[in-house]
Design goal:
Elements lengths: L9 E10 L7 E12 L13 E5 L10 H10 L5 E6 L18 E2 L13 H18 L10 E6 L1 H14 L13 E7 L11 H10 L3 H12 L8 H12 L3 H8 L9 H7 L8 H4 L22 E7 L7 H15 L3 E6 L6 H4 L1 H13 L2
Amino acid sequence: MPSPTPIPLKTLTLTTSTPSPTKPGTSNLTPYISAEIYSPPSSQPASTSTPTILLLPFWGGTAATYTPIQSLLATHLPTIPSIAVSYMGTGNATLSSPHPLSSPSSSCTTPNSSSSHPNSIASLTHHLLHLLQSCLLHQQSPAINTRALVVVGHSMGAKIALSLLSNLLNPNPESIAPPNVKIRGVLLLAPAPPSPLVLPKGVREGQLAAYESLESARGAVEGVLVHEVGRMDGEVVRGLVEGMVGMSRGAKEGWLGRGGMGGDLRGGLRGVFGREEVSGEGVGEGSVGEGKVGRGVEGVEGVERVKIKVLAGVQDKVERIERVEEETVGFLREVGFEVDVRRVEECGHLIPLEKPEVVVEELVGMVEGI
């Protein structure tokens, strides 16, 4: 596939104050989440029915992972804004600089949830809620409408999308979820399951080592993540590999730990429909607010309008179709969500980069159905 057509993107970076490692008694502004925002050319405020598409990348991805999709969306859905995210320690939200950052777009003194790891699912969800608050409070673009979000989550990003969904539909008393932010559609790409997965130490160390050099990261892309790397644009692959290696150590370790892939979102998602009242450490790792599940579906506005679609690559070696259908699709249906599934032929794990046109096709249908 050729390189995507360039589109104008606005960068929004949220920062927090941290002690300076070089100047005792002083603080630096360091980023904890960054976003690339595409706004339609019109300056007219968005209507309440016009959605905004929120794009959450996989472990190793950045906002740039979604540049091909944002470019296609600007062509096929020219009036729809999109927001692609870089998590803390990745892309423009890398925490490696010890020096103060100039002209932060916004700031927040408490970016982390009470979860023990700043890159846990709970913390990253917390950061997203701050991002949505910033879009609401500071009017980053008149076209951005957080009252009708369509959330796209890829792999790890899919687990974060489900955590965000749980927090917005079923907020607990400690939640910072803005009350007027609504999710109208969810598109999960090669999703990591909502249930926990704990890797053996040797496997975990092997995954960390895979992203330590450009050579090893490229080997992971060509040998594991992608079905046919020859079909992808060389510049896209190069940018992907550089983003994987550029992750901070914390960003790499956060997903592989107990609060990342080892977190359990099932209690919070059951709570959306009032199926189960759960309080426990495992749930807390995947929902903002120490694992306390709030009210169920009674009084939760809009739960019946959330559409969930799952795409699974037929040649995916990471999240195999059978696992996706059993652990993600099966569970969500069991809880009470309506979920459709599509198998993507000739595609591995990196659906946004291998088959961006398929992702956009699904988004067009989802947006037109809102």
